[in-house]
Amino acid sequence: MSPVVKLSNVHKYFGALKVLEGVSFEVERGGVAAVIGQSGSGKSTALRCINALETIQDGTIEVCGHAVGDPKLDRRALRQDVGIVFQSYNLFPHLTVEQNIMLAPTCVKSIGKSEARDLARDVLAQVGLSEKAQQYPEQLSGGQQQRVAIARSLAMQPKLMLFDEVTSALDPQLTGEVLKVMEDLARGGMTMILVTHEMAFARKVASQVIYMHKGQVWETGPGSMLDAPKTPELANFVGSGL
Amino acid sequence: MTYTFDFSALLPYWPDFLWGAVLTLQLSAVATVAGFIVGTLCAIGRADGSPVVKAIVAAYVEVIRNTPLLVQVFIIYFGIATLGIRVSANLAAMIALTVNVGAYTCEIVRAGLQSIHRSQVEAAECLGLSKPQIYWHVIVRPAIERVYPSLTSQYVLLMLASSITSQISAEELTAVANRIQSGTFRAFETYIVVGLIYLVLSFVMRGAFTAFAQAAFTRRRKLGTTL
Ligand SMILES: Nc1ncnc2c1ncn2[C@@H]1O[C@H](COP(=O)(O)OP(=O)(O)OP(=O)(O)O)[C@@H](O)[C@H]1O
Ligand SMILES: [Mg+2]
């Protein structure tokens, strides 16, 4: 079976700044890849390239059968297969929780209002926020908003979920409730790539850890590699981080 | 110098005053709706159009904002006639007011569009929404909500400024007043009455705008935040 995500020798520049220098990795169906690394090492950029939010200068990215680097890429089709959740939630403030979730299914998949509402109910139950359907984002805590953002992505029934430091803006308790949702998702077989600073979570949930350094995949392996780093850079990163 | 007010001479004309008020409201309503559409499209064009579109919109806005309304009304009225198209003074007035308020709307809405954070658009793109869908659901609606008070003021101003179209003898409140005062020789009283009617119309318009906001902006209503 071909992998859900496959990056081969990906190069990305912002002007003269080299951000990704030959990044390659793949994630199998149901796999959970945790991307770790220092600030500025290119983690977010790699994630954004997978979702065609950034264009790449060299190499290939294949996601759920879409050739992402191809100029003829159908971005909207790609994005129906890929969900992404950002650190800053990015909920639509003028819409209720339920409307936030229903928007894409009704607009993009043209499903009816009542069916979309059922869908919203299901995904809200999944993230444990059934009672918040009629609230507005500003009435929720950060952790709740982040769970709604996850639910909003799930409502599109993606084949792959990307998470970019989704707990970095949250205090430990709220972080816990969001991580719990992500752990449930991983258990349910969702293919995921998550950029995270939560080493304990990476160790526990990830089937694969990708340590990025200076725009390259410096070291990769199972969660246990964090306990026995091969490179001094990772040893240093793990040692200083926790 | 003493002046004896005599409003009774105007009494027989109350249906004319009323009719003039209705005409002014009509003219303003049409120009408001049309100007809003023109202005919003221009704002989107200026934010997201090709360089040519951006330049055209910028030129339009600058020309309109830096010339007198009365001159614009004349140019449009006589310009259309020169093209050999016969339009009534009322239609010419509607077009001129639309063109005028469209430019001001463009600037106001543009400020609103700019206030929508890039991350909102990105989130919508990532959900697979098309560009028009993103504009409608994620950009324009919240943007309008934010600049709504400015738009309200602009359209009330437009209603007041529509009195200028009496100069091309469009039928509206001021034109009606001009006729009444020349028939009654009670100019002072006539314009006092007309002034009061404009005042009432302003309140009516603001009321209508508030009612619309209540219906359209559900979040404000539910959370009790005022516009
Ligand atoms: N849009 C952009 N334009 C120019 N440079 C950018 C842009 N986005 C990111 N960069 C640069 O690319 C490099 C990698 O950024 P990226 O956001 O991928 O890092 P990161 O690993 O996610 O870091 P962090 O842990 O701080 O989120 C940084 O040097 C950053 O300044
Ligand atoms: Mg980042």
UniProtKB/TrEMBL annotation, chain B:
Cite the entry's keywords alphabetically. Cell membrane, Membrane, Transmembrane, Transmembrane helix, Transport
Gene Ontology cellular component annotations, sorted alphabetically: ATP-binding cassette (ABC) transporter complex
Any idea where the ABC transmembrane type-1 domain is? Answer: 21-209
Q: How does it sit in the membrane?
A: Multi-pass membrane protein
Where it sits in the cell: the answer is: Cell inner membrane; Cell membrane
| Gene Ontology molecular functions | transmembrane transporter activity
Which residue spans traverse the membrane? 17-45, 66-85, 190-213
GO process annotations (BP): amino acid transport
What Pfam families does this protein map onto?
BPD_transp_1 (PF00528)
Q: Which InterPro entries match?
A: AA_ABC_transptr_permease_3TM, ArtM/GltK/GlnP/TcyL/YhdX-like, MetI-like, MetI-like_sf
**PROSITE patterns, A to Z:** ABC_TM1
Coiled-coil zones: none
Question: Known SUPFAM superfamilies for this protein?
Answer: MetI-like (SSF161098)
Give the UniProt family note: Belongs to the binding-protein-dependent transport system permease family. HisMQ subfamily.
The record's listing under PANTHER family reads: ABC TRANSPORTER PERMEASE PROTEIN (PTHR30614:SF35), MEMBRANE COMPONENT OF AMINO ACID ABC TRANSPORTER (PTHR30614)
**What name appears for this protein in its UniProt entry?**
Amino acid ABC transporter permease
Which organism was this protein described from? Ferranicluibacter rubi
